[in-house]
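A note from the maintainers: we've had questions about how concatenated examples are separated. There is no special marker in the raw files; a new sequence line simply starts the next protein. For clarity in this README we add a label.
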Amino acid sequence: MKEHDCDHDHEDGECDCEHKEPEYETVTEEQTLNSMVPLWRRNKAELTDEDYNGFYTDKFHDYEEPLAHIHSRTEGGVTYNSILFIPASAPYNYFSKNYKRGLQLYSNGVMIMESCEDLLPEYFGFVKGLVDSSDISLNISREMLQQSRQLRAIASGLKKKIKAELEKMLEFDREKYEKFFKAFGLSLKYGIYESYGMEAENLKDLLLYKSAKEDKLVTLKEYVARLMENQTEIYYACGESEEMIKALPQYKYLIGKGYDVLLMTENVDEFMLRMLNGYDGKPFKSITDNDINIQDEDEKKALEQKQKEHAELLEAVKTALDGRVKEVRLSMRLADSPAALTSEGPLSLEMEKVLSEMPMGGEAKAERVLELNPDHPVFEALLKVKDDEALLKSYAGILYGQAQLLAGLKLDDPAKFAESLNALLVK
């Protein structure tokens, strides 16, 4: 007797109920084959963002979804499939020597190297992903691989693809690009610096800096497009923080005149700018350089006259500082400050600070110039004591120490500075 899966009894074993055949999910041969094909070899049209993000987080053990993916098949001199990801955040050890950069390298679906460094320039070392090429032998040695023409061709193609993706992100999703730059912008700067400017053309338009005037991140192209009339230089200021930069007398002066200043707070910034050597024909100019000049002819002549008039006092202050400055001169760009330090020559004050923190860079010194504000009441006080050598030396030391602090430099002799200041306070 045939049994029926019913929930009621039947007489004589007969049943008038309608019974449906059990439903089974139909799995096509195509779906089965697709599940066996690696994701990077599948048609992009078949894949979703969820597919890419899931593959990335599983394969590269990241808890965050990537900012972007680049999936491509390249044919020609060398044929390969590649899938690259731009992470959302830098690993904790990314800027250390322990970080292992590189892409996974496959030959016909079989991995032959876990981290192939030669596929990426160091400044794109944040990129995760893999390359699969049938043109690379499965049994190739590491030494032969490094000399491989195919590998160089793949690396060149990948570099172009990564740059194009970042440019697209910068143009069409600024918020996402700024997140990327916060995580990996330092890597791009080092790419320019460490290549001695050879990669400048490739990377310069990917840089972002804080605009003092706009109060937001801007590209160099955007800064140059908004130059003041007759402005021929790109003004920038380096410092440990934006707050310290904004305390500089030269910063206050330029902002008061309506000029924009790019704020740079990373150690590599000024060194990188020397390698970049200008942008769109406009040289970079630190606001603490002594030769920055935006005065009109009448202002220049008036300053020259005052310089001659007070030449004796300026020389006396220089002598009182006992070789600590190359020159003492008057300046009209100190806003409400009585004094400030600038530099001459190839080494800036900021570069001196960075080098002084390095094991072998302590002897590097910028040629310092002490600028005095002739319109400040303190200058009148200097005039009154110019014939008192001891008192002038004390005043000069205090002004120089104050200028050092404003520039973010260490005091030469903190105890002597405090002693001079205390003596002045009880007079």
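[label: protein 2]
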Amino acid sequence: MQFAKRLEPLASNVFADMDVAKAKALAAGKQLIDLSLGSSDFPAENHVIEAIAQSLHDRSTHGYLLFHGTQAFRRAAASWYEQKFGISVDPETEVLPLIGCQEGTAHLPLAILNPGDFALLQDPGYPSHAGGIHLASGQIYPMPLKSENGFLPVFADIPAQVLAASRMMVLSYPHNPTSAIAPLSFFRSAVAFCQQHNLVLVHDFPYGDLVFGDKPAPSILQADPEKSVSIEFFTFSKSYNMGGFRIGYAIGNCELIRALRQVKAAVDFNQYKGILNGAIAALTGSQAGVKAGVERFRQRRDAFINALHRIDWHVPTPEATMYIWAKLPEPWADKSVEFCTQLVAKTGVAAAPGVGFGKSGEGYVRFALVHEPSILETAVARMGEFFAVSKK
């Protein structure tokens, strides 16, 4: 049996290898503390669950849900954006419900790229961004993100021949995995660059609310209020702890929204209307749960960073996201996969190897703050013992 060549880049990845390593550690009797996956351990708010529960008894929600039936959700999303970012949004032409952000970021390249076209992606970056390019038979040009540049790409370093064949750029800030925040001035330069080179500017925005300082993370649409080249993806997985409900949306340039809608129409209908009703409740109801979640992640961040310092692993304190992006000490400086597989085998602590997010991620490891502070401190204590044994 023969399969399409586009599947070849998707055949294996380090995260699948880490799943095997975690299974072996469990089989060996290790008590697993899994910090490798960014899935929030917080529940959705009660008013969200109640909206979904009430929908179950409404027979009108039991059938297929076409675009017109999502109007209330699209209006709620547009209103939320206008209130939060001061951007006027047309819910009829500039908003599209999605079965999670990943559906949108994976399908959009099918609407933009012809085979062989380039997409400019962050390196390191979220792995599914690359997956969508491969499925569209596109080529990837990785834009290295370096600590000395604040983990922001340097557009001047992109070769002219690559730019000539490029059709889209994908950004995501606050950034997974580095936790970097991009200032609005950077977004303005990105918009100008994409306008100059006729590129679609895609911004994946799952961590927009997960910022620990007083200054909110900007939307790409604040740098492109006319929505000339930009589309942004928002998910309910992080802000509202609705990862399992698979609900998100795209917002931005009306032509891009229409093109993505065409691809989506060929693949699926929308999800159950009751889930959209829950998402409406999340957007229009009290935001106290969002603020409380950010505070809990801040406490976890501080506990984890302080514990790392106690074992003499000095890592910068992130200002956003639910991750710690840690530069590996010697002798693991360029061995992130080996470090993570040995760590879980010997201590039960699972982390994500930096190289799994791209070549420029080698030498780092990502920890997800998905446990309470006491468990995080236990994980770091185990790592301290691991380092002590490794040095002998």
